[in-house]
Structure to design on (629 residues):
């Protein structure tokens, strides 16, 4: 257990076997957690004929970048795969679509959510605040699939079906409650004395918010932004229902379409596409792992 | 009747108003200094938020409830007709709905058990400072957490592949299995394969929440226990576990909520099959509406999902520590 007592015992070397057990367990956990991802990377770098063998080549015998060339239609692409699977032509476009959607959703939901969170934490009576927060929590919890039919109909009515702005609005509406929920908790713990001092100097509430509160909450805003970005990038079902052409397909939808159920797919290509789709959020989370882990905890345990 | 009620309402409002103004605003921790009101700019900036959250979060829920009492087909020009409780009697009597309901429960239960037991193991390893493996394990848990669910599904589709899959290859080379198996198209193993793939992505969340709970335990407790000669198991059972139970409760609650929206993994791994062996409520709602075009019945199932989620939300809300009131 995590105590100084344990450490002292290991220093004396009396528990080598115990350390060995822990080391083996840690290694097993890492294989379990990272193995599937490593296998995805290995497969994406192997030619298809190496993947379709028994027994399995655990390391690429003839590493190749042909799958990535095909996905991005670079020189050296596999023309046969390209012809067999026309969805590949949509891949690059869907990558851009997802980048645009996720970035715009982050900007909109942070901009809108932080103002509302501040207002809820400062200008609303505790009773009403509890009511608002409960509604926000509930709308965060409700499965998206349950409300997609009305959203589909609504977007159809205003002509935003299968458009990037339509998707951005829906994602923002779905994620603003999350931003408000997180930021409201932050603002409630924000030192009120700073704001009082600014009011003494004659600042209006909006000036206090934009000049003092926002700059000092940059870290929390940033963390919420990372979460919104990953959630938007990772979404599949909203994109699946609300888009029907290359114009607005997010990367997750094109990835699912690449898995053609009729012919045996090129598994190297599929793994390459999956790796690219997973690369952006994975890199973001890896680089900001402290922010992300703190954020997961505050999202789950916050009161 | 009416004027009397209006008067009563007015009176009630008046008393509430006086009560509110008599509240000592200045003493509330987080109110604006001297009970200030938001100014025009702040009020204005709240309008889009309210419009969007109402349009995407509130109206659709109400509309789904409305739809569940209507008879409406996707893409048909026939007028919407009132259907009474017929959609609900359909979902009560239909064996596919009952099956999806059972499957969702089984899926939820099994993924909670799998993810919590593996996650608890990882959390204990992270907290074990014999090897200081915490840093490595953080790297290991951040990646599965961050990758999209659909990527997770695709990776496992490849791992479970019946002819060239890594799982088959591994089991055969370890002599645990004689021949390659079609995990996803065998009714008896399909659900377990789906749960295994789904749980893999849940483990990071579980491990992190449980790790945070373990970190909050004062180390003096373990020191005292060691002085008294308690075994590792006794320390876990009587010190760690009581601190872990609230975290485990939260983990279970979130997993139940999430399993009601589990969709991507079923969509890509099995499409609910073979037969209806992996049909979940969320996937059923989807195909009922967008493949069979029966919006009314789909809305009725969606209402069921919303109702269950609201119950879970309410439980979660009661579990959260109460704020103020000062």
């Amino acid at each position: 257990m995590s105590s100084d007592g344990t450490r002292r015992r290991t220093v004396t070397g009396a528990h080598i076997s115990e350390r060995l057990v822990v080391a083996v367990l840690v290694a097993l956990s890492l294989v379990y957690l990272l193995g599937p991802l490593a296998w995805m990377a290995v497969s994406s770098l192997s030619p298809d004929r190496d993947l379709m063998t028994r027994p399995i080549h655990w390391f690429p015998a003839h590493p190749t970048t042909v799958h990535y060339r095909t996905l991005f239609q670079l020189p050296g692409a596999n023309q046969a795969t390209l012809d067999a699977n026309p969805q590949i032509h949509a891949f690059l476009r869907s990558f851009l679509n997802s980048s645009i959607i996720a970035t715009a959703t982050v900007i909109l939901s942070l901009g809108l959510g932080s103002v509302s969170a501040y207002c809820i934490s400062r200008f609303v009576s505790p009773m009403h605040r509890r009511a608002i927060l409960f509604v926000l929590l509930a709308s965060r919890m409700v499965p998206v699939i349950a409300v997609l039919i009305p959203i589909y109909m609504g977007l159809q009515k205003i002509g935003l079906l299968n458009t990037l702005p339509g998707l951005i609005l829906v994602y923002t509406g779905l994620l603003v409650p999350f931003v408000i929920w997180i930021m409201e908790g932050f603002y409630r713990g924000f030192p009120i004395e700073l704001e009082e001092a600014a009011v003494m100097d004659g600042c209006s509430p909006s000036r206090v918010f934009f000049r003092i509160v926002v700059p000092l909450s940059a870290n929390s805003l940033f963390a919420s932004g990372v979460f919104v970005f990953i959630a938007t990038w990772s979404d599949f079902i909203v994109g699946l229902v609300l888009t029907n052409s290359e114009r607005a397909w997010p990367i997750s939808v094109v990835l699912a379409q690449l898995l053609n159920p009729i012919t045996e797919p090129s598994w190297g290509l599929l793994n390459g596409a999956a790796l690219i789709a997973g690369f952006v959020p994975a890199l973001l989370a890896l680089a900001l792992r402290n922010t992300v882990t703190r954020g997961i905890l505050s999202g789950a345990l916050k009161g | 009747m009416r004027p009397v009620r209006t008067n009563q309402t007015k009176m009630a409002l008046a008393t509430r108003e006086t009560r509110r103004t008599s509240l000592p605003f200045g003493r509330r921790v987080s109110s604006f200094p001297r009970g200030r009101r938001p100014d025009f700019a702040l009020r204005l900036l709240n309008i889009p938020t309210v419009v969007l959250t109402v349009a995407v979060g509130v109206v659709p829920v109400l509309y789904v409830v409305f739809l569940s009492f209507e008879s409406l087909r996707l893409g048909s020009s026939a007028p919407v007709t009132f259907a009474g409780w017929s959609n609900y009697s359909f979902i009560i009597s239909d064996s596919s709905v009952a099956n999806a309901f059972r499957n969702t429960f089984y899926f939820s239960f099994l993924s909670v058990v799998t993810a919590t037991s593996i996650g608890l193991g990882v959390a204990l390893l992270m907290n074990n400072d014999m090897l200081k493996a915490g840093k490595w394990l953080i790297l290991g848990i951040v990646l599965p957490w961050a990758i999209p669910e659909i990527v997770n599904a695709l990776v496992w589709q490849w791992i479970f592949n019946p002819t060239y899959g890594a799982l088959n290859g591994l089991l055969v080379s370890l002599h645990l299995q004689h021949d390659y198996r079609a995990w996803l198209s065998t009714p008896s193993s399909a659900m377990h394969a789906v749960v295994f793939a789904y749980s893999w992505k849940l483990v990071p969340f579980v491990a992190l929440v449980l790790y945070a709970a373990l970190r909050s335990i004062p180390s003096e407790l373990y020191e005292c226990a060691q002085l008294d000669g308690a075994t590792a198991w006794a320390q876990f059972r009587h010190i760690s576990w009581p601190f872990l139970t609230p975290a485990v409760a939260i983990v279970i609650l979130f997993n139940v909520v999430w399993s009601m929206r589990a969709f991507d993994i079923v969509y890509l791994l099995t499409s609910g099959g073979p037969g209806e062996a992996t049909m979940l409520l969320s996937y059923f709602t989807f195909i009922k509406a967008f493949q069979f075009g029966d919006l009314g019945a789909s809305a009725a199932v969606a209402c069921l999902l919303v109702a269950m989620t609201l119950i879970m939300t309410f439980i979660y809300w009661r579990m959260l520590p109460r704020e103020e009131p000062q």
Observations:
- Residues 1-12 of chain A have pLDDT under 50 and may be disordered.
- The first helix of chain A runs from residue 4 to 11.
- Chain A has 16 helices and no strands.
- The two ends of chain A are 29 Å apart (CA to CA).
